[in-house]
Amino acid sequence: MEHHAATQSAAPVEDRPTWPAVWKGWRRKCPKCGNGPLLHGYLKVRDTCPVCREELHHHRADDGPAYLTILIVGHLMAPLLLVVFETFRPEPLILFTIFAVGCTALSLYLLPRLKGVIVAIQWSRYMHGFSAVA
User: Fold this and answer.
1) How far apart are CA 130 and CA 60, in angstroms?
2) CB of 1 closer than 8 Å to CB of 94
3) Residue 3 lies inside a defined structural domain of this protein
4) Is 76 helix (H, G, I), strand (E, B) or coil?
5) Could you tell me the sign of the dihedral formed by the alpha carbons of 99, 102, 105, 108, in that order?
6) Which domain holds residue 53?
7) Distance of CA 123 to CAs 2, 22, 44, 118, Å?
8) pTM
9) Which of 14, 57, 82, 116 fits a disulfide with 47 by CB distance 3.0 to 4.6 angstroms?
């Protein structure tokens, strides 16, 4: 009889394709419906979607979006800095100003989008509290 409990199949799990959810997260929309806003303010994830009522408070994005933002900005701006310096030889203050503004702007653009992507991946893979079991 012990074996009987292990062989029972669980209820079918709804398929949640990852790439459509990632695209919705990049757009900062609910990973389920794609219509409701995912974020409240700049980085605060809503507890529930105002359109489809999907619970979103389970996410564990933590430092992931910040890490990815630094990784991407660093890998884009460092080679660009070298190319600009070697090609144009601008004054150091001008070079610093342009790249400081560029790094800041790119970071501010990427951070909420990458947070949406992380939350969407967690939602699509049933990670953390986004379980299939109610």
Assistant:
1) 10
2) no
3) no
4) helix
5) negative
6) 17-124
7) 33, 10, 16, 9
8) 0.86
9) 57
Q: How far is CA 22 from CA 19, 69, 81, 103, 118, in A?
A: 5, 16, 30, 24, 8
Cβ(66)–Cβ(74) below 8 Å? no
Residue type, 47: D
Q: Is there a contact between 108 and 63 (Cβ–Cβ < 8 Å)?
A: no
The mean pLDDT value of the chain amounts to 91
Tokens of 14: 């709804």
What is the number of structural domains in the chain? 1
Q: Which residues, including other chains, have CB under 8 Å from residue 56's CB and lie 6 or more apart? A: 30, 38, 45, 46, 47, 48, 49, 119, 123
* Structural domain contains residue 55: yes
- CA geometry: angle 74, 75, 79, nearest 5 deg: 100
Percent of the chain exceeding pLDDT 90 equals: 83
Q: What is the pLDDT of residues 2-15, one digit of tens each?
A: 544 444 455 567 88
- 33 is a domain residue: yes
Residue 41 in any domain: the answer is: yes
- Annotate 26-75 with three-state secondary structure: HCCECCCCCCCECEECCCEECCECCCCCCECCCCCCCCHHHHHHHHHHHH
